[in-house]
């Protein structure tokens, strides 16, 4: 099969990664990725992974390589908490190699990795993860705070969710969060919510997928992130978002909503999982919960998406399809 290339357009020399200029409706960074020649798009989603191969990170990576090859994926999405326990110490932190490039070595995974930041990443040098220097170390690394990826049939809205969470500001415990580039916080959040709302409204993509680190609906250890439920969820509901995809809870989870068509997916099983951590949830919304390691694959066309959760052995745990024509989940 002919591999789909990814289209990247240079605009000036400031960024080594190719990007499109932001339109007037949004201040968010914009990237573009082509679909495959047959018009479909395939990708994997993994979160909460960077532990130098420990806690089955290497085993999950190996199975991602197998499934990535099978689906001929276009790219990988990381839902954050990229490097434990406290992000990167700087651009030269060897954890970048030990937890990323040395682990995800399968040929099928040598595609762009679109990353968001998690709360653990904010405990280190955040700007190191955003630095073009990392991209020079490995071209597949793509990380911005918040950005938009246009993949023709689907548009992805990556949202920096850590600054929403009050606790990290009011009770940071022993951790030192790196809020450079975030403060003043109120202004940062106001602009971010406004920009995401504008970009969603302007989107004509068939699929609208929002990616953030923190949960909106979750029965996991962290549970619901009330700040996102209040500030982000109404925007997603008002703009016909199809999927909200997150990490943070170290599990695999699929929740539907009785209030909207949005489906909530947690893919936070990239390494250490939290066995037995589950709270009760409305049975009519909870479609699947797995408290072990694993990852998600998505294969989509203009009118159908097939989603599959795999465990650490590459076994299928849960799969479902969404039809755009029928507007329901099968
Ligand atoms: Zn987290």
Automatic annotation (TrEMBL):
Signal peptide: 1-26
SUPFAM superfamilies assigned to the protein according to its UniProt record, in alphabetical order: Metallo-dependent phosphatases (SSF56300)
Entry's cofactor comment: Binds 2 iron ions per subunit.
Keywords, sorted A to Z: Glycoprotein, Hydrolase, Iron, Metal-binding, Secreted, Signal, Zinc
Organism domain of life: Eukaryota
EC category name: hydrolase
Entry annotated with the keyword Cytoplasm: no
Similarity annotation: Belongs to the metallophosphoesterase superfamily. Purple acid phosphatase family.
Name of the featured protein: Purple acid phosphatase
């Amino acid at each position: 099969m002919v591999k789909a290339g990814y289209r990247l357009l240079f605009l000036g020399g400031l960024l080594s990664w190719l990007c499109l200029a932001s339109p007037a409706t949004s201040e968010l960074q914009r990237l573009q990725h082509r679909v495959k020649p047959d018009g479909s798009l395939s990708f994997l989603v993994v979160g909460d992974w960077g532990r130098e191969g420990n806690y089955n990170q290497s085993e999950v990576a190996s199975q991602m390589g197998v499934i990535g090859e099978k689906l001929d994926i276009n790219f990988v999405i990381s839902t954050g908490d990229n490097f434990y326990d406290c992000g990167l110490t700087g651009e030269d932190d060897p954890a970048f190699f030990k937890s990323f490039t040395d682990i995800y070595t399968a040929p099928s995974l040598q595609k762009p990795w679109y990353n968001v930041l998690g709360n653990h990443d904010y405990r280190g040098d955040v700007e190191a993860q955003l630095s073009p220097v990392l991209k020079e170390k490995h071209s597949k690394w793509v990380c911005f705070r918040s950005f938009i990826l246009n993949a023709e049939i689907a548009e992805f809205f990556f949202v920096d969710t850590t600054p929403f969470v009050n606790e990290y500001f009011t009770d940071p415990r022993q951790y030192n969060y790196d809020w450079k580039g975030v403060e003043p916080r109120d202004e940062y959040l106001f602009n971010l919510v406004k920009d995401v709302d504008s970009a969603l409204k302007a989107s004509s993509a068939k699929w609208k997928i929002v990616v953030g680190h923190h949960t909106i609906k979750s029965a996991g250890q962290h549970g619901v992130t009330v700040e996102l439920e209040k500030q982000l969820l109404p925007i997603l509901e008002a703009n016909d978002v199809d999927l909200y995809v997150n990490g943070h809870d170290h599990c695999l989870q699929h929740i539907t909503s009785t209030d909207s068509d949005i489906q909530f997916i947690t893919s936070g099983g990239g390494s250490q999982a939290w066995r037995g951590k589950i709270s009760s949830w409305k049975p009519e919304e909870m479609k699947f919960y797995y408290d072990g390691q694993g990852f998600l694959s998505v294969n989509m066309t203009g009118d159908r998406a097939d989603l599959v959760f795999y465990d650490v052995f590459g076994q299928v745990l849960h799969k479902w399809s969404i039809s755009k024509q029928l507007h329901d989940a099968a």
